[in-house]
Amino acid sequence: MLEVKTPEEVLRLIETEFRTLERTENVRLEEALGRVLAEDIRAAEYVPDFDRSAVDGYALRAKDTFGCSDAVPAILKLVGEVKMGESAEIQVPEDACVYVPTGGAIPPGCDCAVMIEYTEDYGDGTVGILKPGAPGMNLIFRGDDVFPGKTILKAGRVLAPQDIGALAAVGITEAPVRPRLRVGVISTGDELIPADQAPGSGQMRDVNSPMLAALLADFGAEPVQYGIVADDEALLREKAAAALQSCDAVILSGGSSAGVKDAASRIISDLGELLLHGIAVKPGKPTILGRAGNKPLIGLPGHPAAAFFVAKLFALPLLARLEGREERSYPVRARLGESLGANHGRMQINACRLATENGELAAAPIRSKSGLIAQLAGADGYLMIGRDCEGLPEGAEVDVYWS
Amino acid sequence: MLEVKTPEEVLRLIETEFRTLERTENVRLEEALGRVLAEDIRAAEYVPDFDRSAVDGYALRAKDTFGCSDAVPAILKLVGEVKMGESAEIQVPEDACVYVPTGGAIPPGCDCAVMIEYTEDYGDGTVGILKPGAPGMNLIFRGDDVFPGKTILKAGRVLAPQDIGALAAVGITEAPVRPRLRVGVISTGDELIPADQAPGSGQMRDVNSPMLAALLADFGAEPVQYGIVADDEALLREKAAAALQSCDAVILSGGSSAGVKDAASRIISDLGELLLHGIAVKPGKPTILGRAGNKPLIGLPGHPAAAFFVAKLFALPLLARLEGREERSYPVRARLGESLGANHGRMQINACRLATENGELAAAPIRSKSGLIAQLAGADGYLMIGRDCEGLPEGAEVDVYWS
Asked: Where exactly are the structural domains of chain B?
């Protein structure tokens, strides 16, 4: 008999029981946003690939300006202008300078750039330098930003827009990423009908299939819908086995009846190994987890709010484990708008809305009598109250996890 | 002559100068994730549409159990079982009960459900109730969660997975959303080459086009690439006019040369009205903003890190304004890993990485000598130092904006 596990134990179980799938596919940079890097990315070249100026001004030899000042400018011969995008092949003799725009290439022999604000063009082919340069001043040297072999991004990174920019900068227009995980979604329960049908008495629309599909898509996985399966163990087993065949993971969400719950755990035991039967969270306790090879079978509670929380807290980290995805989910700190009770001997999860009040972020817990829509619609995130905490007073600082 | 504006002034300018485009299109729920609701969504029906049990147990009349206890159970006749997904048409006489699963319909006449834990099935057609019920106990009434006319989600909401679930629950399988904004992206500068070409001396790859396209896609807009335009005012004007014709907004990002910057502001003045010439942020000062009708023309700095920050801080809020999108970007609180200087008379923006250290979130500022990749690659977010602040000490609490 498997015992109910704490959230920490479940996360450890995920680490020990599942391994990262070492799979790679190459995608074009335009398609790489949100994908998980499969390998470290190293630069193969220098950025910049030439010494460039960090200012609009004059490239020159610092030593030719030592000792100059407003009162006693260094008078240098202007021998040309560097154009953006062109190499700087101008020969600059001693006591001479070249105009260079920000980002322009520094001609050989010059060792600094003096900002135009500290110069005066006399219009007769000479320029007065009013402030001495120093070697390296206002220069960005070849390879200052990146050099061959430098690690740009690490494996596991979920590619963000800034990363796409960095890859473009070093000419990497294809990236090795993890193939998207295919995740089968099955809803079970005799009372369920598809969302586009009108419920008769005793019937409820299937919320979990579209919600979990959206959650998986948002995460970057590919949901594969297997629809609603009635409370028929043979049928459910058949669907689960089919899903397991063609997917990397399968999420069942159970109906409310005891029959479905037991069937799901029997099916998971048959198809693989049952690892977990119950998590000490409220809502979300009737969660089961199994493993067929390295493929997880996750049985979520039927109640949509519970299914949502458990999917966020445990199913997504499990999928992240399969991808070797770097965790980047940080809570925001907010002040609790009203007191919130808890007294269940297990961690309590509560949806909330966020709003800025008097320059401070306020979290308003969403209360409902098992109301699925009230708990979900418009929620900005959720907060957690530890199992040993009997509740939080109004004004308490809380960590809110976005969703 | 337009003065450099503070960030707050720029955000106010956006509010006063641009209005929300009252456009709507209907999308199927499967396509609605991340889209912006164009209208409030009201329910047209009851959820649940019947009185249901919140527990596994027996539906009965509370008054038949008043005064019962472990020692003196109320003995009720078991007259049937409610099945999941079926209406509860069983007639329940006085002093009788019906088995009902969690979520099952409550038969007419019954006014509460007693948990199975507080009952005993004697196996002879009678059930002992060991704890008295009370009217309404363990029931979810018709419309408890949602009733016709109740607002489920408000206009401006960016649809999250939980919202998709809520819409499915009330049978809304198509949602009225804002059409995606089409945003033209133009990079300018003689030194720029496409990312898939090898730079010659003096040339740099165009980072801003792919980076801004990814940022726009991530935001939920549709980027339209107009490629790289050399520093030729007539050509740039032609491209900008073409982009303005077929897009809702146009983002130019300027090369480093003074010529390009001036050209962009002349072009914006010609095509519409120049509203802004410079923002008091570092990096990001050379930002310009214009308006042609209600279409914004945004001129970003050429340096990719500056372009990135300005796009996040000002261009995306401007696009959100055009959509009437509800702002949902909250910073995370972190501790600064090392001191960070600032002394520029304008707000300083600094990229940083986040990591959890000793259970606390730590922000490591990314330092670089104008290094574009170092500032972008792997950055988790950015922090801002106010214009009147001379720097932050190690260990200071900072707000980090995700990216």
From this structure: 7-22+179-323, 25-47+145-177, 52-140, 332-402
Report domain B52-140's class: mainly beta
Identify the bridge partners of residue B95 per DSSP, sorted by sequence position. none
Interface contact B84-A189, CB threshold 8 A? yes
Q: How many residues does chain B have?
A: 403
pLDDT tens for the 403 residues of chain A, in order: 567 999 999 999 999 999 999 999 999 999 999 999 999 999 999 999 999 999 999 999 999 999 999 999 999 999 999 998 888 889 999 999 999 998 899 999 999 999 999 999 999 999 999 999 999 999 999 998 899 999 999 999 999 999 999 999 999 999 999 999 999 999 999 999 999 999 998 899 999 999 999 999 999 999 999 999 998 899 999 999 999 999 999 999 986 556 666 788 899 899 999 999 999 999 998 899 999 999 999 999 988 999 999 999 999 999 999 999 997 778 898 999 999 988 778 999 999 999 988 888 999 999 876 667 778 899 999 999 999 898 999 999 999 998 7
Contact A47, A146 (CB under 8 A): yes
Residue A304 to residue A206: CA distance in whole angstroms:
9
Length of chain A equals: 403
Query: What fold characterizes domain B25-47+145-177?
Result: Molybdopterin biosynthesis moea protein, domain 2 (3.90.105)
- In whole angstroms, what is the distance from residue A204 CA to residue A380 CA? 25
* Domain covering B7-22+179-323 in this structure, CATH number: 3.40.980.10
Q: How far apart are CA A265 and CA A301, in angstroms?
A: 12
Q: Are A371 and B164 within 8 A, CB to CB?
A: no
Write down the pTM of the prediction: 0.94
Q: How many CB pairs under 8 A join A and B?
A: 314
**Topology at the third CATH level for domain A332-402:** Beta-clip (2.40.340)
Task: Given the cut 0.85, state whether the ipTM is greater than it.
Answer: yes
CB nearest B84 (choices: A256, A351, A370): A256
